[in-house]
């Protein structure tokens, strides 16, 4: 028999254990049926950008495989860190996931400033579905017909060759500085606030070339000329344009779109999300939509993108330390 003094404590303990079992059972049952309610994708940028439009296209097609609506919430600011921070702190149940956008918030900013997340340890990457077009452009009537001609001019005219990017220490800025180091030349960097600004400066003859995102219609209309692509493989739109490796530059440019979640998300939920969004990538509506946006489809599964992110984190740690930028 339980002593009368201990009886209330025993009852309380048994009630607590039973409650925990019921809660755990309910959580397990919910995860087994996942998803049972809408899934929210946190986008770390403003609405209307190409990446934002791309993930909306993907989410719409994924609904038929998830059996639930997919909604998008924009949390712009801090170069992407605001959205990343939001993803790191949500409940890891698969109902709030995020869009990862490549270099700045994952491989550059973490080494330049203190952030409330670790880009590798705090996240589980689900799938990559797009690459982002970045490259080097000159004005349409520029005398430079190739990237080699641009480099030769820079070698013959130290510091006179000027270029613009959308920000200091952006991925484009880092790539060009790595190239100039390899070639032994000195360039003058002029940072702008956006790709629109540096393209305007280029057309106004205020800079010799620009590096970063570029306007496809302007290239097609020959207002600007693409000399070099930063992508991992040649563009279907401009197959004649060399990529970094074609010119002997072993410099990564991890600029891509994919989905990620808090690190403690259950493996079976990751599997469901990975399968659903991977199938959505093959839908004709998605394929046509991103083609119209000039966004190349590029697939990596969960394990592949996890490995890719970890590898590039180490690479950029070394690069930024060598440049004297890492704190």
Task: For the record, give the distance between the C-alpha atoms at the N and C termini, rounded to a whole number.
Answer: 65 Å
Q: Look at the structure and give the CATH class of the largest domain.
A: Alpha Beta
**Spatial order of strands in the largest sheet:** 2-1-3-10-4-11
Instruction: Give the low-pLDDT segments.
Output: 27-31
How is the biggest beta sheet arranged?
6 strands, mixed
What is the name of the CATH topology of the largest domain?
D-Maltodextrin-Binding Protein, domain 2
Describe the structure.
The chain is of the alpha/beta class and 327 residues long. It has two domains: 38-132 and 255-322, D-Maltodextrin-Binding Protein, domain 2; 135-247, D-Maltodextrin-Binding Protein, domain 2, CATH 3.40.190.10. It contains eleven helices and eleven strands. The chain has a six-stranded mixed beta sheet, with helices on both faces. Strands 7-6-8-5-9 form a five-stranded mixed beta sheet. The radius of gyration is 24 Å and the shape is globular.
Summarize the structure.
The protein has eleven helices and eleven strands. It has 327 residues and is an alpha/beta fold. It folds into two domains: 38-132 and 255-322, D-Maltodextrin-Binding Protein, domain 2 (3-Layer(aba) Sandwich); 135-247, Periplasmic binding protein-like II (D-Maltodextrin-Binding Protein, domain 2, 3-Layer(aba) Sandwich), CATH 3.40.190.
